[in-house]
Amino acid sequence: MGFRHKITKTETEFAFRKTVNITPEFLKKHGIKGLILDVDNTLTTHDNPVPAEGIIEWLEKMKKNGIKLMIVSNNHPERVKPFADPLGLEFVSDSGKPLRRGYTEAMKRMKLSPRETGAVGDQLFTDVWGANFAGVRMIYVSPIELEGRHKRFIRFKRVLEKPFLPKKFIDEK
């Protein structure tokens, strides 16, 4: 990443098109022992209580390979708990991203350092900034889908994010 990414705190260490393309082998190669996971447009579409295609299998593969997992979301518990519980995931809701509070809490509960922790998310001004402020290794993923018209603020942020988004993705050949 270039100088402008360092100044704006928009640098991402890794970028994937899809969450499910992140492998335990990749994480272990980079010393990542745990993942902080965003929900909306990372594990499922906005306001959807059902994980996106392949996410359940991906989570199981991560768990079987000893990767610790925890959701950190700005959503309220009423949104996060019914999503996280069936997946067997702990969570921090109302996390205040991009503030580091939620990231710090998750690392404390997973007993991991920032260097051992990766954050997976799709938004620059919440997920990427939050990971960078907390010193966590950022794994950017492309959003699952474009937000609907009722999510005007997020759509507006997506326009502002464009110049800073990764151009190279690990899972593209």
Strand % is 5-15%
Order the strands across the largest sheet as they lie in space: 1-6-5-2-3-4
CATH superfamily: HAD superfamily/HAD-like
User: Uncertain spans, ≥5 residues at pLDDT below 50?
Assistant: none
What is the residue-mean pLDDT, rounded to a whole number?
91
Distance between the termini: 19 Å
Name a few traits of the molecule.
single chain; 173 residues; alpha/beta; Rossmann fold; 6-stranded parallel beta sheet; 7 helices; 6 strands; 14% strand; globular
Can you put this structure into words, describing what you see?
- With 173 residues, the chain is of the alpha/beta class.
- It has a single domain, classed as 3-Layer(aba) Sandwich (Rossmann fold).
- Helices cover 37% and strands 14% of the residues.
- The protein is built from seven helices and six strands.
- It has helices spanning 3-8, 24-29, 55-64, 77-87, 101-110, 124-134, 152-161; strands spanning 14-16, 34-37, 68-72, 90-92, 117-121, 137-141.
- Strands 1-6-5-2-3-4 form a six-stranded parallel sheet, with helices on both faces.
- Strand 2 (34-37), helix 3 (55-64) and strand 3 (68-72) form a beta-alpha-beta unit.
- The radius of gyration is 15 Å and the shape is globular.
- The chain starts with a helix and ends in a 12-residue tail after the last helix.
- The model has no long low-confidence stretch (mean pLDDT 91).
